[in-house]
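Summary of Year 1 activities. Much of the first year was spent building the evaluation harness for sequence design. The harness presents a backbone, in tokenized form, and records the residue chosen at every position. We chose the following record to illustrate the format because it has been used consistently in internal testing since the harness was completed.
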């Protein structure tokens, strides 16, 4: 079975957070427990699909994006959830997504 590596805390070597906008976080259930294997989608400011990753075994996900308004949407057997994030510039922007039925 394929699984995404832990993506939340450690960025790959060579990522310059002075130039890159990184959206990272964790998918959590209503009790605050990580949700492994959730599909996490990145939607642009108009709601259009941009990218998708599978959350790691610890619920972590990461996207490289541009400054602007984005929606993070998590889809899982435990439920779904959305959260909006609006990074204004480069850096690591952490935003967890809580899912519920």
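For this record, the design step produced the sequence shown next.
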């Amino acid at each position: 079975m394929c699984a995404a590596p832990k993506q939340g805390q450690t960025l790959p070597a060579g990522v310059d957070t002075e130039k890159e906008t990184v959206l990272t976080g964790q998918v959590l259930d209503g009790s605050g427990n990580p949700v492994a294997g959730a599909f996490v989608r990145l939607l642009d400011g108009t709601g259009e699909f941009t990218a998708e990753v599978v959350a790691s075994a610890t619920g972590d996900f990461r996207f490289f994006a541009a400054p602007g308004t984005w929606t993070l949407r998590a889809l899982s057997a435990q439920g779904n959830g959305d959260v909006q994030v609006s990074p204004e510039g480069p850096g690591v922007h952490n935003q967890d997504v809580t899912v519920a039925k």
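Residues 1-7 have pLDDT under 50 and may be disordered. Quantitative recovery figures across the full test set are reported in Table 2.
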